[in-house]
Write a structure and sequence with these properties.
seven-stranded antiparallel beta sheet; 2 domains; four-stranded mixed beta sheet; 11 strands; about 25% strand; 8 helices; alpha+beta; globular
Length: about 290
């Protein structure tokens, strides 16, 4: 069975030059996105219509002539940023998402897409990206037979780890057919209660780390803005949140895998989570159970 999916691989920069070049890619992509978002806004207010992608692509060529440091990064990654912005505007006009926002260096996710000219050596765990002299080592694997790779997205987490998300077409063997049907009820005291009596407890990963998180947050807030000490505490805080997220995702994957393996039909209640988190007494507990 052919499916479109993404595989996330942990990559390891070879030296400080690679780290600097990765950061340049993140910064240049963010600059192009914000620059053309401003142009799109101006064109919309003046002409009352969206700037076409073709005109924006021609403007990008001229921008690269005026801004020399944009030539230091992969040109197709900059074009993909323009396509992402164009798609964001289309989704806004179709009332699917909200109006596109400018990307912040601190708050936005650091990433860039490589649509072509990459190479992945699965046997030796090496991935080659344009503009980088040597390939990156990676750790990770994929299930099923890889038929075609469409693109690779490089990203950096707040804790400073680098990942490559490989989007492609995979041939995956379907799970064996089963006859069971089950209904599940979601809660806070117990995470999942099934119709056949099974109970999956809520392990409260966030609550168990709150004391440590508060201590790190206090230390971080007391340091001078822009100092290296503040940056070290920020990274420690990001690592703690990353651990909580990984623990939560691992537990959820264990539960969902068991439910899918044992049942053919799963019935679940429709919850208004956005409305539930408005209750400040329960918001943290609801967010903790995802």
């Amino acid at each position: 069975m052919l499916v479109q999916k993404a595989v996330k691989l942990r990559i390891y920069p070879n030296n400080q030059q690679d780290v600097v070049l990765l950061e340049k890619h993140f910064g240049c992509r963010r600059f192009v996105y914000n620059y053309f978002l401003n142009l799109f806004n101006e064109n919309y207010h003046q002409a009352k219509k969206k700037l076409s992608y073709n005109k924006a692509a021609k403007e990008l060529v001229e921008l690269k002539k005026e801004t020399e440091w944009l030539k230091e990064v992969n040109s197709q990654s900059l074009q993909s940023a323009l396509k992402d912005l164009d798609g964001a505007y289309d989704r806004f006009y179709r009332k699917i998402t909200e109006f596109p926002q400018f990307k912040s260096k601190r708050k936005s996710k650091a990433s860039f897409k490589v649509p072509q000219h990459f190479d992945i050596d699965w046997e030796n765990n090496l991935i080659t990206i344009p503009k980088f002299k040597t390939p990156f080592k990676f750790r990770g694997q994929h299930k099923g037979e890889l038929i075609k790779v469409n693109s690779v997205t490089i990203s950096r987490t707040p804790s400073g780890k680098y990942y490559a998300s490989v989007q492609g077409e995979f041939d995956i063997q379907p799970k064996p057919q089963v006859e069971d049907c089950i209904g599940i009820d979601l809660g806070i005291k117990d995470l999942v209660i099934t119709s056949n009596g099974d109970i999956f407890p809520n392990k409260r990963f966030l609550k168990s780390k709150l004391k440590k998180l508060k201590y790190i947050q206090r230390q971080h807030s007391r340091k001078s803005k822009g100092s290296s000490t503040r940056e070290r505490w920020r990274k420690r805080l990001a690592i703690q949140y990353e651990k909580i997220t990984n623990q939560r995702l691992d537990y959820l994957h264990q539960i969902t895998s068991q439910l899918i393996d044992e049942n053919q039909v799963i019935c679940i209640e429709n919850l208004n989570v956005k409305g539930m988190v408005k209750n400040h007494k329960l918001a943290q507990a609801i967010s903790d159970v995802s």
